[in-house]
Structure formats: C-alpha cells, structure tokens
Amino acid sequence: MSGRYELRFSGAGGQGLILAGVIMAEAASIYDGKQAVQSQSYGPEARGGASKSEVIISDGPIDYPKATVVDALLALTQEACDKYSHDLKEGGILLIDSDLVTKEPVGNFKVTKFNITNTAKNEIGREIVTNIVALGAMVALTGVISKESAEKAVLARVPEAFLELNKKAFNVGYEKALAAQK
Amino acid sequence: MAKKVAFMQGNEAGAHGALYAGCKFFAGYPITPSTEVAEVMSAELPKVGGKFIQMEDEIGAMAALIGASLTGTKALTSTSGPGFSLKQENIGYACITEVPCVIFNVMRGGPSTGMPTGPSQSDIMSAKWGTHGDHPAICLVPASVQEIFEETVRAFNLSEKYRTPVTIMPDEIVAHMRERIVFPEPGELEVINRTAPSVPPEKYKPYDTSFGDVPPLAAFGTNYRFHVTGLNKMEDGFPTTKAAIVQAEEERQVRKVEANADDIIKYEEYLMDDADIVVVAFGSTSRSARFAVNEARKQGIKAGLFRLITFWPFPEKQLLALSKKVKAFITPEMNLGMCTGVVKGCIEGNAPVHGIFRVDGEPINPGQILDKMKEVK
C-alpha cells in the first residue's frame, strides 16, 4: 500500500471534526487530484462523547476505508487522545490542544501543541471555527495536500457570510502549527 | 463537456441514483444511519415534480410506496434494521401484489435498536426471509459510493423489470463514508420502466400470464381498474383458494426471479485466476478483503476475492464451480455467520469454509483476514 497516508481527527461530538475530515479529503480528492476516502465513527449523542473522523489519502485506489496505522492524529480532548492514539505509528504526527490535553500518550511521536480551541475563541472570536483552526494546523504539519487546495475546499464548504472568518481561522491555524512545531 | 464530479457520502449517492432512475416518490421515517437519503430526497424531489412524505411510521411508509407505485410512479424508502423489521408485513404485500418499489436499508447493529451508529451486515437474511411465505427476493450489496449510485439505478431497473420489491443494502461504513463520485450523464446508464398493458382497459388483467412470468402493470388513474389484495389471487386480481391456481401463482412469482438469476446476479472477481484461497465478501468487508488479498499475494499466498454485488439471488452456481478447484473459502462478515451458512449450503462440502465474524460495531480489518489466510493456507 505505497503512498497510503492516514489521518485521524478526534475530539468530542459537536466540535466539527467530521467536517474537518471531509474538507481535508475533499481538498485531496477534488482539488489535488489524489484519491481520498473519509469515514467516521461517533456515538449516539449529538454533543460530547468521543468522536473521530478518518481520512485516507493515496495516489492509487483505496480499498480499506478505515485507518490501519495512523500517520497523523489530531486530538482536541483528553478522552479522544486516550481512546484514539493507540495505533498512531512510531514517529507519527500528533497535534493536541495544549489546554485540553494535558496527559500526552507515551511513545515516540512528533508532538505539536498549541491552544487550538482558545485560539478560535479569543483570536478569531468564534469557538465554532476550532475545527478549521485545527484543519489549518494539520495541513501545515502533514504537508500531504497543498495549502491552496485546502483553503479552496474550506471556502467551498462555508456560507458566504463566514468566508473571511474561516479563511482567517485556517491561516492562523496553519501559521501557529508551524511556529509550534518542534 | 467534463462530467460532474463530487465528493459525497454513500447515502447521498443513493438518493441521486434514485433520482437518475426516475424516482418521483419517497416515503419514509428517519433513522440513523440512513437519514441522509431522506434528507437529499426531501430537498431534490420537489424540484423534479416529485413528492416526499415523512410518514407516521415505517409500515405506513411501505404502504405509501405501494400506493404510489400503483399509479405508475417509481417509489423509494430508506431505513435501517429496526425500521426494516417494521416494514416487513408490507414488503410481503408488495411481493404478492407484484408492485415495484425500492427499499434502501442501511445495515447497523441489531437485533432491535442494537447499535444505531455502528456498522453491521446482519440484515441479509431479513432481506430474503423477513416477510413470511414464499416470495422472490432481490438484494444488492454495494461497496463504494460510486457503486451505491449505480446499484440504486439497477435496483429500480430490476424492480420495474420483474415487478417486485428490491432491497439495496449498504452497510453503515459504505453508507456514511465519502468518496469521489463521477455522475453518469443522462442516458449513460440504462433506465428500465415497467411494461404497460398493450390491451384496452376492459380486457386488462393485472396477472395475465399469457404475457409471460412478469405481466404488464397498468397505472391507476389511466382508466385501467383492477383489484389489489394480499390474498392469493387469480389473473384478474380477485382472491381465490383454488389449489391449482394458488400453486401455479406462487411458483410463478418465485420463478420470475430465480429463472432470471443470471440477469440479476452481479459479482466481481479479483485475482481469482490462480487463487486457491478465496475470500467471499461484500460491502465494506470486501474492501478489507481486497487489502488482505494484496498483502497475501506479496507474501506468496495465492489469495483471491469473490465480491458479491448481488446477494439475493445468491450466485450458487458460480460458487459451486469454484469450490471444485479451490483449497478453502474465507467468509468475513459483520454478523455471526449468515453468508458463511449460505456459502456452505451451495458448495456441497467440496471445500472448507472459514468464517470471520464480528458484531462489536468495529469493522473486520485486513489483518484479521490475512491472519486467517496464513492459518488455512
């Protein structure tokens, strides 16, 4: 399975992680000319609980649609980090919200952390764009899709009145992740 | 002109497939993990002059489908396990009255409310035997977003062609995952419409077998009148208990599907030419199997995949032929052995069948299948 790159976006239900995964996969599949599959797993609750969205990106056809060995993991809550970090590969990318995930998983990972949720809330002004800040950060850290495609995919998915807000969220996330990268 | 491309969910693709096939009526009751089908239909049907009704319950939705279809309208419902159980009485009614309609059933954990957001493949027996009595069954099990679109079109075609309800059953993983889809242009895929009567209204009989095993179906509202009942009936549609007629009618209804199995059965063979270990799988599980087959080949194991696209009627003939030349079958499925039993039932003991069963809401992963291949090789 050469070229199979696996990403997992995890956190609590209601944080928009499924949408973040959808946008990432859409950018790869529609704008970057790669193949992508997005799938999800969530509990019956509309808010809370642990939620994950997985994206597989490849140059060739993708058969198994779920993650096998995760290349890059985003965890926005401690619960999600505890539950979904077990199959992150050695040397894999781990992005965590530094305010909400205080206990890092044990292992040899490339950990990047910053206050993702508070960045959305205080710097962008709307907590609702936490997922887009995180998406920007994941695009920066993984480099698996182009920044231009990702930004196009974000803007294609949001209502017109919120274009600037989301564009800012995406770019702030992108820059902050690069700055925080070890 | 470039074809329209989108990145969408399996359920959404199913709804668009139905619209492509000419569906103009949807009745249903929302249920996870199938709700997106209803969402798309509710938004799109009014634009094409169709009707969307959110019904009071599932059996009511099934009744509405039968009524709509009897007016000549292609009709769809979507549901999941618990709703599929509730629809069964009227699915039987559609079978005996021979009314075309399509049921889009997304498989989640069961029985009862089970695991609403968890995947499963445990409704395949319900698709054949969920309603009581002998009756034909056609059930399709797509494995990708593109295939859900295309198989939904085929579900309508088969339903119209054979005057019978057709069930299309993606599992939750395939129904909820998103992939790129290339929309076929109008006319690119075949769209079949039921045969209309060639005789005037006064001469029309709804079950007139002189036209073959699938009699033409008139539309209510076009001056044709006929009787519709769930009782065993004569060729004019009125009830009968005459033994010879009932026997012949029951046999004809089953025969119209069984005798046309070759037209209905669809499957894909992958790396099967020299395979001695054959995985028989469908839906999302077949994608794990394909991954496992590729890995096995790298390790020198001659593995192949027989992917079911039609589940009912089951490709008995094909598997029996295969069983005479392979070493073993592996049957991974998200239930406790339903497909495994069917495979065993048609291969006359010619080869061992090793099941892999999961009902914990997690997919069967490629590693599990690969381990089994190593064990049996």
Overview of the structural elements:
The complex is a heterodimer of chains A (182) and B (377). In chain A, 40% of the residues lie in helices and 26% in strands. By secondary structure, chain A is of the alpha/beta class. Chain A has one domain (5-180): Pyruvate-ferredoxin Oxidoreductase, domain 3. The model of chain A has no long low-confidence stretch (mean pLDDT 94). Chain B is of the alpha/beta class and 377 residues long. Helix content of chain B is 38%, strand content 18%. Chain B has helices at residues 10-20, 35-44, 58-70, 81-97, 126-129, 145-162, 172-176, 243-258, 261-264, 283-298, 316-323, 338-346, 366-376; strands at residues 5-9, 25-28, 51-54, 75-80, 101-106, 138-140, 165-168, 178-182, 267-270, 277-281, 303-308, 310-312, 328-333, 353-357. In chain B, the strands form three sheets. Chain B has a seven-stranded mixed beta sheet, sandwiched between helices. Chain B has a five-stranded mixed beta sheet with strand order 9-11-10-13-14, sandwiched between helices. In chain B, strand 6 (138-140), helix 6 and strand 7 form a beta-alpha-beta unit. In chain B, helix 1 (10-20) runs parallel beside helix 6 (145-162). Chain B starts with a strand and ends with a helix. The mean pLDDT of chain B is 97. The A-B interface holds A 1, 22, 25-26, 29-30, 35-44, 63-66, 68 and B 5-7, 32, 116-117, 173, 176-180, 284, 287-288, 290-291, 294, 363, 365-367.
